[in-house]
Amino acid sequence: MVKIIGAGPGAKDLITVRGMRALQEADVIIYAGSLVNEELLEYAKKECEIYNSAYMNLDEVIDVIVKAEQEGKKVVRLHTGDPSIYGAIREQIEVLATHGIRCEICPGVSSFLAAAAALNCEYTVPEVSQTVILTRMEGRTPVPEKEKLSLLAQHGASMAVFLSAGHLKELQEQLCEGAYTPDTPCAIVYKASWAEQQCIKTTIKELEQKAREAGITKTALVLVGDFLGEQYAFSKLYDPEFQTEYRK
Ligand code: SAH
What we know:
Cobalt-precorrin-4 Transmethylase, domain 1, cobalamin biosynthesis, alpha/beta, Methyltransferase, Cobalt-precorrin-4 Transmethylase, Domain 2
């Protein structure tokens, strides 16, 4: 059985306890080196075999796993953030199943959560937005027509845009084709939770320029929406006038 582990957004202590234990016990670790912080590999045993999947294709990853499984080794596949978001795990799970190998997934702290933490903000503020859209700009991976950014932007909801730091001009344009305006607040968070973390709060119209000035071209998330603005209402949950099951 292979353990697919969410590494968290970067900081070594933002992996789950379960994920850390799996790294400590692993005989083989294959990590997504383009985004996983290598400090996490310090949890591994000295004799652990470590592979960086940034240099491997799917067949090579599968070969390493199948061979290790045949030798009875404990295998960890380490993905950045949470594996369920742009993790490319589905094909791994299905190909491994054809070899009779099962996978168990351990969730991780996704970068969109670390980015909100870095900004001290809440995506779901009352009377502003109660919805978070996780999406990306189209790149070499196509995005379904109905999920075009300009369509998703029509909701004006809180949005976290992955994998798009290299296309900020187009991103600005497409966001403003929806309900956002050039003055809608947005932020770009580079390497959330890493030592090199940078947070820039700005507006949609200045996003590309601000990111360029800061030299940010990748490993960044763009957050968009009025949740980053000044206006909001207090939550009913802690309202003195409001009764709950626990507080009469
Ligand atoms: N599974 C990951 C996402 C992988 S896609 C997760 O849950 O976070 C890779 C994209 O995630 C990057 O292009 C960037 O947009 C974002 N990303 C990953 N780690 C990040 C971090 N620490 N800070 C900001 N963005 C990050």
